[in-house]
Amino acid sequence: MNRMIRCGLLLAASCWPALALAQAGAAAGTGDSPAAAKDGTIGEIVVTAQKRAENVQDIPLAITAVGGDTLRERQVNGVDQLVAVTPSINFGTYGGAARIAIRGIGFDLPDPGSEGRIAYHLDGVYVSRPSAQLGTFFDVDRVEVLRGPQGTLYGRNATGGSINVISKAPTEALSGYANLTVGNYGRVAVESAVSGSLSDDVTARLAVMSNNRGGYGKNEYTGNDIDDANQRGARASVRIKPADNLTTDLSADFYRENDHAYGIHYFGQYSPDIQLRAGVLGGTAPSKLRNLNSDFDPTNRRELYGFAGAVTWDLGPVTLKSISAYRHSQFRDVTDIDMTELPLSQFIFAEKAHQYSQELQLSGSFGNSNWLIGGYYFDEKVVGSAQVPSNLILNGGPDRYVNGFKVEGHLGTKATAVFGQLDLALSDAFKVILGARYNHETHSITDVFQLDNDRDYAPNAPLLPFPGFPRSDAVTDNVVTPKAGLEFKLNDDALLYATVSRGFKSGGYNLGLNVPAFKPENIWAYEAGLKLTTADRRLRANLAGFYYDYSNLQLAKVVNNNVVTENAGAAIIYGGEAEVTFLPFTGFQLDGALSVMHSEYRDFSSVDPADPNLGLQDLEGHRLVQAPDVTLTAGAQYGFAGPGGEIRIRGELNYRSRVYFTAFNIDSVGQARNTKFNAFLTWTSDDGHVSATIFGRNLTNKITKTGGLVNTVDFGSPISGSISPPRTFGFTLGYTI
């Protein structure tokens, strides 16, 4: 209760100045619709976060929307770089899986078939696989980041929020662009698109991308690059309008990687009393954090593609919309987990998945009220495997490479849901929000576990099941996720809101571990906020305070060679956020976002597999994984007339306090607080056709860890993980039709 009071006081204190500004804006009048930002005012951004088009400032939830032009100018060319433009978001990778967290809620450890807590959508289609969320970010019209549980409209695995990536739609007039980027580490990247009419009723768009780059580090043993990039992608879309009230959107996209990325880096020993096992046998760890010292180069092979069809039928009083989609993803990563040049082990991680989804929406309005009802179906099948072939010399045996540890299995999810939301206007200024979603899910597994120290290693050797395997099982969960709220418009430019909502993350199985399924986790979220734009549209301030009550929190850790997910008892998270944009005079902009947060586990005890001698540890009061207490982004930019066009200069900083990668809150298994700086210089021709940007990111060349874990005691419990890019700089030349 004391923490809830403190959270309320924090929100009240942060809202007080903005409330005063709102009253001043009301007294001055609301003015006309905003002009473009280059005219000295803040423009509107239209989003579809609530499955209808509306101004982002009119939505009673914490949301950040960033347009495609801003993303390109600031070199945000992947979901991992959204940390530079969005408050309360944290990002990392491990094994090529996106570890996205919002307000301390995210993806812990990669395991075949595992799912994140942030619902990632591409053009309205949920992309389930964390490994498939890194290859869809090109030809982007805008990105919408919704903070807080979105259980009513988005459903499963939106416990922490949702990221909606909206690609550019086909245009009737001929349009397009081509951008060429050249940078350090031998980077050459191309992104281009062309769009136009094929007939009176049909428009189409084709976008392609290519990104090639040398490695950020070296394999000291082979001398070859690691953490390089060889990426290709394409997307085709067609819009058919046989009638003014009927629109069909069809799309297909493809993406692949074939490089030496996502090799795990050596962060040191978990315990100074335990040596790296390979070091005892004469192996040598890499001399630099960015490097590896491995008897083979890491490999990364992944392929993604998908098809989607959306039909929108405007029937006058109501609108009917159908979204049908199929998505496929496949990857195979191989890296070294003994951390040395000795041929002692490999880690082979693979996953192949395909999903079908169907969503139906029926929506309408009456007066100032809006309503929506819908149904959803999702069917996913995943084949996953993880293997650690090893040399028996690790166990004091002969120098033989054997099949070792391997898990492999089929996981299935079938989910159905019905949902609805009503935003009921009781007056011109006051609305009541009521919504709910009923979720029915069935999870199934058929898997095999093997521990084979008898047969010589063969990539396709038949599995020898451990006792208790093969296993087949299924479990069904039913969850209701309601939402209720109030919104009050102080004037056309100021909105107060308060909401209570519930979210959930699906339950499931630990692959290769014959234990009952872990349960869904649930969260109750309480949020209040203020959205304000002053009458002269030179200041915009969005403030929010939140309190989360978490139960059955799913937490993953490595036990022997298995990734084990267990249900923590409970956790709480509370804090406040502020996003501010200020245009003191024409051409000059100040912007920033601050998040202050507190997180802690409640009623949770666990055994640290890297130090089992400590026994069962009480983790109450420990901070959640991927939950920094403070995040801050701040930027300043100035635009002025230059030779033949406009010049914009921008500088920005990004600060994050300490982050832990484990619930045991060990400093070495985490990242200390850090600050990074970026800078951009952009010229755009008077006619808008030609642009050029010089950019620099992470200018001080800060090395930060983005994800990590303690590996098995068989290798001496080394800490390993992923690291962020070094200082990068380059030049982008663009042409727009």
TrEMBL record:
Keyword Cell membrane assigned: no
Primary subcellular site in the record, as a coarse category: membrane
Start and end residues of each TonB-dependent receptor-like beta-barrel domain: 240-699
Swiss-Prot/TrEMBL keywords: Cell outer membrane, Ion transport, Membrane, Receptor, Signal, TonB box, Transmembrane, Transmembrane beta strand, Transport
Annotated protein name in UniProt: TonB-dependent receptor
Cross-referenced PANTHER family: FERRICHROME IRON RECEPTOR-RELATED (PTHR32552), TONB-DEPENDENT OUTER MEMBRANE RECEPTOR (PTHR32552:SF81)
InterPro entries linked: Beta-barrel_TonB (IPR000531), Plug_dom (IPR012910), TonB-dep_rcpt-like (IPR039426)
Topological relation to the membrane, as annotated: Multi-pass membrane protein
Signal peptide: 1-22
Subcellular location(s) per record: Cell outer membrane
Domain TonB-dependent receptor plug: 56-161
Domain of life: Bacteria
Family: Belongs to the TonB-dependent receptor family.
